[in-house]
Amino acid sequence: MEMVQTKVHHKKRQVVIFIILILLWEAGSESIQYSILEETESGTFVANLTKDLGLTMGELAARAARVVFKGNRQYLQFDPETYDLLLNEKLDREELCGSTEPCVLPFQVLLENPLQFFQAALLIRDINDHAPEFPAGEMLLKISEITMPGKVFPLKMAQDLDAGSNSLQSYKISSSPHFHVLTRNRKDGRKSPELVLDKALDREEQPELRLILTALDGGSPPRSGTTKIQIVVLDSNDNAPEFAQEFYEAQVPENSSLGSLVLTVSARDLDAGSFGEVSYALFQVDDVNQPFELNANTGEIRLRKTLDFEEFQSYQVDVEATDGGGLSGKCSLVIKVLDVNDNAPELTMSSLTNPIPENLPEIIVAVFSISDADSGHNQQVTCSIDDNLPFLLRPSVENFYTLVTEGALDRESRAEYNITITVTDMGTPRLKTEHNITVLVSDVNDNAPAFTQTSYTLSVRENNSPALHIGSVRATDRDEGANAQVTYSLLPPLDAHVPLASLVSINPDNGHLFALRSLDYEALRAFEFRVGAADRGSPALSSQALVRVLVVDDNDNAPFVLYPLQNASAPCTELVPRAAEAGYLVTKVVAVDGDSGQNAWLSYQLLKATEPGLFGVWAHNGEVRTARLLSERDAAKHRLLVLVKDNGEPPLSATVTLHVLLVDGFSQPYLPAPEAAAADAAPPAPLTVYLVVALASVSSLFVFSVLVFVAVRLCRRGGAASVGRCSVPEGPFPGHLVDVSGTGTLSQSYQYEVCLTGGPGTSEFKFLKPIHPNFPPQGTRREMEENPSVRNSFLFS
Fold first, then answer.
1. Which residues cross the membrane (predicted)?
2. Among the listed ranges 197-211, 291-305, 349-363, 754-768, which one has the minimum average pLDDT value?
């Protein structure tokens, strides 16, 4: 878009260049000139530029050669195969240059990579394609019969549009005894005819004569044009009109308004009466190009058409004064047109690179030329762009400029620039032209994808369904197009023991993460891996982020009772002395839960008892205690059913059965030494002896059975299992089955020993040393059941 304004924007970088109407070639450089005849057919060979410019074959094509004429006209073109210079259209020398000789069209050859200019010119040679033409087909002359021989009568000139030797050269007239014609060379280079009287005329003898005037050019063969001359012989009129000046000069500004007075001519005639009355007329009238009109009575010459200095700088006008008797006189006028600043500068874009790549300094964005059709001071121009843009204007040869980047551009900071090139002349008032171009910055892959987070933490509940979407990662790339398209991938795991390929997968297009199989919290509580994001640029850039997946526990494990074990071959019996007080610790139910958190919080409850109200279970630690004092009326054998329940949702539970035997005399916390017992013991009664013998026999039989059972178990499982006592696993157990913080599951496993004595002394129930197992980090309840390692702790003596 171009617009002409008279104001100049402030804060502009200005580079001043003087443009002269006739182009001046750069100092020290030679211009190559080619010539061609006008009216030559289009496509005619003009020159071999590759040879003339000293370039290598194919270099013109490789460097995107262009021919640039003033006004962006394309008179020449390149052959697409050979890159020879050809004529692009028929050229008419008279249309291009008028009467100017020689007719030269300057042009530039523009090469890129690197930018280079070559000056050249095309000379249009004239051919004789126009014949001389008179402004009218007939001229009228009135000559008095008393006119003396030798008198010269100016005639109207013929015009020939050709130039040089092909232009008008001479005049001739048909044969006449009274006249001959002279060809006069004028100061402006034109040739005018003059009729010379050779013999006096006699009106009575021949009142009228007719001649034929012929104009000849210098072509080969010559062309000609003719007009008729009618001569009327007048009766006696002694004096012809005479102008005050034979030659007039005047100046008129090109912006003068129509009707403006240009000049007044004056002639006088010494005759009296009608012979002394003078009228004025333009002697040579060209209605097409003549911008003036003459008042026939006053001699005032006024403007009838708008003047244009750029089209015609001066006019040659002949004025004829004629009296009433037909005699005439002639004078010449030269009217010079004065230039005013009425033409805004012109900008012609020769080359525009769009878009331009980022990160490269000093890229040539555009090549353009500027010109102003005015002259002198009005032709001087300045060229500028806005200061706040990262671009520079650099003058090149002649009136050419290059627009280059000031430094490397960053598309991510700004992807588009609107540049206004302002060309202002130095005339009064100043005129300017603005040319707007939009420059796009193309992307280069200079930004790696960036994750929205440096690390991601995802949670997935165990026992999930395969192919479950567990979360997403996201990375963005500031580039555009393929350079901004991100592809996601899983990087090799940090821990080589983690089977990452079987755990998760990632959608390469959107970063969605999926669990490939069902996860088990008890087997794998958390794992980490790295995710990569790479763009599709060349070369590809990438980044990575850490992803931590936490497996959320689900209440999928019921409590597991460690003591007493229910798969023992003989039931576990707890001995309680009848003398025990309320709150007496009978035993402790030990259980674990494979889950974690509140899913592993265990509570204990007595579901069923042989005698309700005799025993109670503490809800938080599983201790079985007496609820009241024992009496002789209480049964000796009791069966307790204890419920162990977790705090999950829904809660899971397990039950354990306890056997309690009430015995007499089993109330001391420690057994006395054998010597003291023997000294204090009274002589045994016969019933006591029988009981001891029977108990020893049963014990021997029981011990034998236990040994056989142990041998069979060792052979079958390779493990050791004892019978005849309450069993406690001695480890190893999974560490995650042992809870801490007093939630109802023991933080340690305890080994209990119950010793029975057959003497009359008091039996004793005592706690021995605690067991501190070294549990492995992970395991399952099934593994514990299949691989028990227990030790019998219920001893008889």
1. 689-712
2. 754-768
